[in-house]
Amino acid sequence: FFRWKMRVVLAAARTSAQRLGTRRAFGGLASQQNIDGLSNDLLISLSMNHNNDGRTQAELVANLARNNLLKSDFLIETMTSVDRLHFLLPDQEGMYEDKPRNIGSNATITSPHMHAIALQALFGDGDIPMGSLALDIGCGSGYLTVCMASILAERDGVAYGIDHARDLVQSSRRNAERSHPYLVKADALHFFQGDGFLGLEEKAPFRYIHVGAAVEDIPTALIDQLAPDGRLLIPVGPEGSDQDLLCIKKDTQGNTTKEKIMSVVFSRMHIEPPDTEEAKRIQLEEKVKQLYNEAESLTKEIRNWQAKFKEEHSSRP
Ligand code: SAH
C-alpha cells in the first residue's frame, strides 16, 4: 500500500511539474526557481499529508514542529517570533504557506521548511557559546539572519548577512528594522553587500555560516573563516538538479568533516551581481556622460565651421 501511495504521489507531482511548465518532469519540478530548496525526498514527505501551511506564523511554525522539521523548543520560539509578514513584498497572498515567494531582484525568500531545517542543522544541538558570530550568505529577505541574531543576541553574539544584490541588502535592513528593531539597535545584526564566494573576512571567524545559494565547489574562503568547532551549511552541486545540503564541521585542530543533511535544489550563487537598480543607475550615468561628451564635440565642430565660414565669406553664417 505504501509503495502504491508513493507511486500516486510521484505521479501527482509529475503532473503538477508539467502543469508548471518545467523542462524535465520530476527533476524539473524541483529545478523551478520559485521552489528552491525543495528536494525530491522532502517533496514526497510533504505530499504525504505533511502540509506545513498555516494561517498565521504561529500556526505555520506549529506545523513545522509537528512534522518534525523543527525539534528544539528555542528554535520553535525563534521562528514564531520572526513573522514572515515583515519579509515579503506587500500584498502577498498565502504569506504563511510553506513556499518560497518572490522578493524582487530575481530572488525568493526560501520556503519556511528550509529555514527550519537550516536552523535545526546549525543550532539544534543547543551548544551555542557566548559571543558567537554567524554569517548568512545570500541573506535575501534577511529572514534567516534575523533568526540567527535573535538566537545569538541573548548570548552577546552577532549575526551578519551579506548579499550580492544591493537592493536586497537594503530590503534585509528594512525588514529587520520592522521585525526586530531592538536587535538592530543593540548591534546584534548587520547587513553588507558582499560576494558570498569571499565570505566576510573582516568579521571572521564565524561559529555558524549559512549559504543560501548553491555552489559547485565549497569556497575555501568559507572554510578558512570557520571558527574552531564551527559549522558551515551549504548546498553543493550543479545548478538545476539535486544538490547535497552539506554540514561541514571544523574541529579544534582545524580538521573538517562533512555530513549530508539531505538533497535540495537551490538557485546558484552568482559570479556577477544581478542587474539591480543601482547597476541601472550607474549605466544611466555612464550614458549621460557619453551624451554630454558627444554634445561637447558637436558644439566644437559647429564653432569651427562658423569660424571657417566667417573667414571665407567675411560675414557670419
Ligand atoms: N535565504 C534568503 C534568500 C535566498 S535566495 C531568504 O530566505 O530570504 C539566494 C540569494 O543569494 C539571493 O538573494 C541572491 O541575491 C544571493 N546571491 C546570489 N549570488 C550571490 C553571491 N555571489 N554572493 C552573495 N549573495 C548571492
Automatic annotation (TrEMBL):
Enzyme class: transferase
Keyword Methyltransferase annotated: yes
Subcellular locations according to the entry: Cytoplasm
Pfam families tied to this protein: PCMT
EC nos: 2.1.1.77
Coiled-coil features, chain-numbered ranges: 281-308
InterPro entries: PCMT, SAM-dependent_MTases_sf
Superkingdom classification of source: Eukaryota
SUPFAM superfamilies: S-adenosyl-L-methionine-dependent methyltransferases (SSF53335)
Gene Ontology cellular-component annotations: cytoplasm
Key words of the record: Coiled coil, Cytoplasm, Methyltransferase, S-adenosyl-L-methionine, Transferase
GO molecular function, one term: protein-L-isoaspartate (D-aspartate) O-methyltransferase activity
Main location: cytoplasm
Similarity remark: Belongs to the methyltransferase superfamily. L-isoaspartyl/D-aspartyl protein methyltransferase family.
Name used for this protein in its record: protein-L-isoaspartate(D-aspartate) O-methyltransferase
Taxonomic lineage: Eukaryota, Sar, Rhizaria, Cercozoa, Chlorarachniophyceae
